[in-house]
Design goal:
The chain has 146 residues and is α+β, with helices and mostly antiparallel strands. The chain has helices at 4-40, 43-58, and strands spanning 62-70, 74-84, 96-106, 116-127. It folds into two domains: 1-40; 43-135. The longest helix has 37 residues, at 4-40.
Length: 146
């Protein structure tokens, strides 16, 4: 007859292995889904996500009229009519308005500590620099203000 304690250990290991297999399967599904999205998604499908991430990172509304992505190990991303809003205290005029923003990313550098950006272009842009009360400046997000 087998001792009860060792039987419990076997059952626990079996449960742990099932949980580990489930977590691994979930991670594989998520990674595969993300890879498929990145591979098949068009710039117009990615545009709302890019606007949301940029708006959250800058703490103000960012809009992009058109986004195109040419995928590959060297990926070209072009945003047409990129607008970054001013903070509320700085008025209605946008902080930045760029007619064309283009960047090339070397995705093979994702394996390196630093991402390589071989090309960064801004065309027909205007930037409105504003100073407010209490030494506020419009190019500093609320999170980074000192």
């Amino acid at each position: 007859m087998q001792p009860l304690a060792s039987h419990c250990v076997v059952i626990r290991m079996h449960v742990i292995l099932k949980i580990l297999a489930g977590v691994t399967a979930a991670i594989l599904v998520i990674v595969t889904g993300l890879a498929a999205f990145v591979y098949f998604a068009t710039g117009e499908q990615v545009r709302p996500l890019a606007q949301g991430f940029a708006s959250a990172a800058l703490g103000r509304k960012v809009t992009i009229d058109r986004l195109t992505i040419n995928k590959g190990w060297i990926t070209d991303i072009t945003a047409s009519h990129l607008v970054i809003a001013n903070p509320d205290w700085a008025g209605d005029k946008p902080m930045a308005e760029i007619e064309r923003f283009a960047v090339t990313l070397d995705l093979s550098s994702l394996l390196d500590p630093q991402l390589r950006i071989p090309r960064l272009e801004l065309e027909n842009g205007t930037i409105d620099i504003a100073y407010g009360a209490d030494d506020r400046v419009n190019w500093q997000s609320a999170e980074t203000a000192v």
